[in-house]
Amino acid sequence: MNDGDPNIWREVFSPLGQVIAFFGGLGGLVNAVVTRKTWRETLRVILVGSAVAFALGTVSPHILRRFVPELTHIGGPTLGLLTSSAFVIGIVAVGLVEWFMSRAKTGGADAK
């Protein structure tokens, strides 16, 4: 965190977080358009994709650095990798969240 400005909200809602949320929402939009959802379902898918990508956005650099050790700073290829991973997360987010919720409701048994 920046010692000169201890405002945690500014750190959390940084420009990078906003870009990651945007690309997550864009992935959700692609999911909704491809699966031909109604406009209300489309909004839901966009919101879920954006929120999940934003939530995982701060963890993504650390996970990706494990597989691509050359990622030392945010910018250039790293930014492209983060935004593309946010896009993919946005595409699959609704399915994953619904799957986790159904597993939680059934206590871990196979839910159909």
Care to describe what's here?
By secondary structure, this protein is mostly helical. 73% of the residues lie in helices and 0% in strands. It is built from five helices and no strands. The protein has helices spanning 8-12, 15-34, 39-57, 60-67, 77-106. The chain is globular, with a radius of gyration of 16 Å. The mean pLDDT is 82.
What labels would you give this structure?
112 residues; mainly alpha
Gap from first CA to last CA: 44 Å
Q: How many distinct helices?
A: 5
Give the integer mean of the pLDDT values.
Answer: 82
**In this structure, how is the largest beta sheet organized?**
none
Order of helices and strands: HHHHH
Low-confidence stretches: none
Give the radius of gyration. 16 Å
Decide which structural class fits the backbone.
mainly alpha
Large-scale geometry:
globular
- Could you tell me the strand content as a percent range? under 5%
Q: How many E strands?
A: 0
The amount of helix comes to over 70%
